[in-house]
Amino acid sequence: MEEMFHKKAQAMKRLVEAAEDAHQQHVEDPDLLKYEYFNAVLINEVDEVGNSVELGGEFILQPNDHFNNLSVNLSLSVVQVPTNMYNKDSAIVNGVYWSEALNKVFVDNFERDPSLIWQYFGSAKGFFRQYPGIKWRPDENGVIAFDCRNRKWYIQAATSPKDVVILVDVSGSMKGLRLTIARQTVSSILDTLGDDDFFNIIAYNEELHYVEPCLNGTLVQADVTNKDHFREHLDKLFAQGIGMLDVALTEAFSLLRDFNETGRGSDCSQAIMLVTDGAVDTYDTIFAKYNWPERKVRIFPYLIGRESAFAENLKWMACANKGYFTQISTLADVQENVMEYLHVLSRPKVIDQEHDTVWTEAYIDSTLPQAQKLDDGQGPVLMTTVAMPVFSTKNETRNHGILLGVVGTDVPVSELLKTIPKHKIGWALHGYAFAITNNGYILTHPDLRPLYGDGKKRRKPNYSSVDLSEVEWEDKDDMLRNAMVNRKTGTFSMEVKKSVDKGKRVLELHNDYYYTDIKGTPFSFVLLFSRGHGKFFFRGNVTVEEGLHDLEHPDVALADEWTYCNTDEHPEHRYLTQMEAIKLYLNGYEPHLHCDKVLVQEVLFDAVVTAPLEAYWTSLVLNKSENSDKGVEIAYLGTRTGLSRINLFVVPDELTNQDFLTAEDKEGVFNADHFPLWYKRAAEQVPGTFIYSLPFNTASENRSVVLASTAIQLLDERKSPIAAAVGIQMKLEFFQRKFWTASKQCAALDGKCSISCDDENINCYLIDNNGFILVAEDYTLLDGQIFWGTEGAVMSKLLQMGSFKRVTLYDYQALCWVYSESSGSGHALLDPYFALLSAVKWILTELVIFLVEFNLCSWWYSDLTAKAQRMGRSMQVPCDTEFPAFISERTIKENTGHVDCDGCIKSFVIQQIPSSNLFMVVVDNKCDCSMFEPITMNPVEIITSHNESLKCERLKMQKHRRRPDTCHPFHPEENAMECGGATHLVPSAMATLFYVLLVLLYR
């Protein structure tokens, strides 16, 4: 696994060296404005007369399944320029010209490591070079909002972790459009913060207003949830009064100092972002008290509006505190101007020439069209990115610390899973692997659910910051989590409750965790084994000839997501299936094909020893009397090596449930991170026991089936290794008929039965070990209905008697419906691209400014906002829920009892059916027990989330995390004179003299 990560990092190092060499040799040339490059949006576009458009040209594209079957060019890269930038700007054209040298390295990297996917260079100037070349298409508004400098991989590689306080001026002069621009500026600043950063937002006029009052006096981690929480509060800001900047600056400096002393936060760079329309003073006494001479806190003022009366004061603040000043006049200016501060924070790292390797948290691949990516049955493509900064190495610019950009490559999380020997985890049956980041967030885990929605899937808003404690929630004291965050190596054990089958069932397990760090990354990795499995295993030995003979049977299949042979190492192997690769490997036709010798040998053994099943199943098909009514539809087998055999007793079109054993049924097949559910549940039973279940996704009229499976063990004891599991799919109607026939048979001595299921005074049920009804006289109950909801009085009694027990499960990735009073349409006003492409194209900007000055725009905007808020809408938001599951007590085989239903005594009896997980329940139906509340499995939001004080504590709570290993907050050679602003500013003589003295004293 470490080798895989190392190879990706080495590829990035080669790109960095090539980029820096190319820039070193490049000389800026104004004639380059005539230079044509392949623009990602314009390639293969023609004008009205059929000629290629400028920056377009013919660009050969061919579908490639390694790149999600997209049409790509494996020889060349393309260049994307954000919509709000001019694609022939001299700085961009010069950068595109020298970075063209990366094409050769892109191709070379791909040849060295064919498992690589997208490689790219994100320039500090804003353009994005991507390999392989692919055509980009605008959204429905004609916009490509992508800006590489806003991506986490870019920001993490370019800068060090930081603590940031954002001060927002909400004095009366900020009314109208200025406040709208200020909100968008703050939102854009939040976009540039990541999981290693900490922040808070303070609005000020004559008083201080923490945007989230609960977080007065502290900073919070800049994860997705916290940033979204603050964005919601930005809409509540309104302008009035006068601005007391001195009070706000004092609070910001005190906050940063006090928070740093707690030992929390980034413990690296510190910054104050000042969003205002002016400052009447330089406030040098405050800076002298809190920030000089070290100047550890950088100041980044953003002047809102066109006026520059107070611009010189704001620029002086930036220059005197190693910051940067910018002026933002329109919404379209926001994003580009906010980015400037990143160049300043990158200077120390550039001067140090530290090419830190960074890895991002998991995110969903954005290269596929949304519908195809999330709705094609394949699920989301989770990625992590490895990135490195690229610096200017020219001696004359060394103290300027010029960041050229960042190189990166995407690494599918599935690549990490391919390095795991799944058959060895399979010996432990319930075992799986997962990895977390330095912040304790999941990189990969079987229980990570990044999507929601029954129809078209959508991304959850906080899927990239799901903490380990939210999936391994029994780790109450975070012992496992903290050990992993601290990158330790060791073992940990605990009792766990795992929900399966769409959260309807529960397994109680004792898990052993073996954890260690992944060298060269911020990740820690775990292999999990369930106690009682995996302690013993076996190996078989057969000849290659007999193994291949049985492996080639048409009814044999291998786990699609397992790596028996590495088909990614060489391009000629990419199109091989695992079965094809094994055959080539065993026949010696591909000496460069690397396969897992042990796993392949075990597969051959399983193919040979299970081959007789095919003849047995075939004989059943030929013997019409055995299955004359076609009640049994499928027989199946799965082994611990991922081999499966499937035999159909009916033609495919006649299958009642056609999803079973297909990729559509994720829990029913061998996956990268788990064995089939029917396999795992059968293995938890006493050897020789069949487990029956009614699949929840198919229990509807004319599609209802029952699954029955049992595990195959070498010895008749629980510690014996599981060799395989076998089972059948049968029609529910067929299964019910067999039950009713058996239940009506009588074995009384006198030939007469005193009671039977035909008796109108009793109800007969067949339930499984989780309390779900498989057979009932009332067919409406056969939709996955739990017995608790039908016979609540009886099942409550069974809980008291210990025949069943209730287990509370938690879902910390849930979504709950809430009613929002504000309309999402208002947010369109804050999007710079919609503003840029609005009908008037900002032709009326001067008129708008005029209206703002007279507060007419404020009045108009407030009226629209009020109307939008009155509309309201329902939306889903992240929440925590709890829900019950039920499980039978193994040792109690039968029980009888009575329930007092308001004076009427209701009797019942329950008895386990031998060698199964089923129970027959007979209930006296003469009493009305409707006064007993039915017990449901519906999830309930954990009520503490509505308690404001507890909600506040949760916001403040910061779990243990590990800071990144490197930090570059400042450098003594840094040139702080470059402190921003295209506006020509003439500072006062006193301010200029004071600043010169500062530079002389403290540089």
From TrEMBL:
The keyword Glycoprotein applies. CDD domains: vWA_VGCC_like (cd01463). GO terms for cellular component: voltage-gated calcium channel complex. It comes from the Eukaryota. One of its GO terms (molecular function) is metal ion binding. It comes from Tetraodon nigroviridis (Spotted green pufferfish). Pfam families: VGCC_alpha2, VWA, VWA_N. Gene3D superfamilies: PAS domain (3.30.450.20), von Willebrand factor, type A domain (3.40.50.410). It is a single-pass type I membrane protein. PANTHER family: VOLTAGE-DEPENDENT CALCIUM CHANNEL SUBUNIT ALPHA-2/DELTA-RELATED, VOLTAGE-DEPENDENT CALCIUM CHANNEL SUBUNIT ALPHA-2_DELTA-3. InterPro entries: Ca_channel_alpha-2/delta, VDCC_a2/dsu, VWA_N, VWF_A, vWFA_dom_sf. Residues 163-345 form the VWFA domain. The keyword Transmembrane applies. This is Calcium voltage-gated channel auxiliary subunit alpha2delta 3. Belongs to the calcium channel subunit alpha-2/delta family. Signal peptide: none annotated. Keywords: Calcium, Calcium channel, Calcium transport, Disulfide bond, Glycoprotein, Ion channel, Ion transport, Membrane, Metal-binding, Signal, Transmembrane, Transmembrane helix, Transport, Voltage-gated channel. It is found in: Membrane. The chain crosses the membrane at residues 985-1002.
